[in-house]
Amino acid sequence: MPTTAPAPATFDAPAAVNRLVRFLAVPGVTGQEAAIAREITAALEEAGVPAAAISFDDAHTRIPEPTQTGNLIVKLPGTAKRAAKPVLFMTHMDTVPLCAGAVPVVKGKRVVNAKEGATALGGDNRTGCAVLVTMVTELLRQKLPHPPLTLLFTVREESGLFGAKHLNPAVLGAPAMGFNVDGRLATDLVAGAIGADRWTVDIKGKASHAGVAPEKGISASMVVALAMAEVYAGGWWGKVAKDGKVGTSNIGPIGTADGRSAGDATNVVTDLVHVKGESRSHDAKFVREISAAYKAAFANAATRVKDHEGRMAKVKFTSRLDYLPFRLKDDAPVVKRAAAAVRALGREPNVRVTNGGLDANWMVKHGIPTVTFGAGQNEIHTVKEYVDLAEFELGCRLALALATGEAE
Predict the structure, then answer these.
(1) What is the residue-wise DSSP string for 296-330?
(2) What pLDDT, on the 0 to 100 scale, is given for residue 116?
(3) Which of 15, 20, 69, 384 is deepest in the core (most CB within 10 A)?
(4) Cis ω on the peptide bond leading into residue 168 (within 30° of 0)?
(5) 48 burial via Cβ count (<10 Å: 0-12, 13-18, 19+)
(6) Measured between alpha carbons, how far is 333 from 312 in angstroms, rounded to an integer?
(7) What is the share, in percent, of the chain residues with pLDDT greater than 70?
């Protein structure tokens, strides 16, 4: 069984909260993480981390969306003389676009947005950034024993887990296990997560005057309508259950590839429509089945919408793997270590799975078994977002317990 030392009694909670507010005040929506990366780097150096231990990878050069910087990586040598594999601690730096312009303030035992109702706060995931920097600060300040540690701050988590996906795992130094800070409760140990596809459909019809000669047009909008009717009737939209397999799907934006509304006028048969959607399941094969149902529905709909000469719409369906599902066993060393650390803090762990995607999905794919725990995020991605400071402080203590504990 793994053993874990209790978190140090001299944990500096006020400094950790100040650090959290500092990070929340720095803008850094997904793809624009350069400023927050600089702030995290500065805080690490203030804590005593040598500049030579801090680096950035080149994942942003492989990410298909514009991204300012690569993932931030920090490596700390272990304090013991005997060799040991590193332990990975990770979180993501980016926030959703709704967080732009947030002004964090402390009110009682919460951090809230001073611009109440205007933007989200960004606790997802500046809480994780503050937890990891606090962990390093306390390890160095108190000269606590610890194994070699690798810290990973990823980019573009919110827009598709891109930083973790395009990471070259070789740069991490072969960690034996990983801990990802991202969520609400520190006692919730996420050991499994759903997998997902994202897909797009481009429908090319033919414009014509909708009042004078609608029969000469091929309506791309009607193709979408007929396809969605087939998907809905077949039970492939929303919660999907087929032959004991379950998942979800959704159709998102419908317009043009550059985000405008499809069609320019009501008196013109719409010739081009761009659709985005997703499919999810804990069964990787079922994810593909759901996507395939959408693909077939759009192909069928295209054959039903014709002009006066019998010409049909053209459909291009493209899907990409967002992330694979995973489920770590309850007796996996990383799960046992996380559970033992929670118990060392006097709490009871709740090992569970989630229906959302995490950077941990890609870490497991990269060969690093990773458990995720929370640190006070609440009402994320909404204008009501806040950080529960009691839970944030528990997340900091748990990270310290994990960093100073011993693996099997």
Answers:
(1) HHHHHHHHH-B-TT--B-EEEEEEEEEE--EE--T
(2) 84
(3) 20
(4) no
(5) exposed
(6) 57
(7) 97
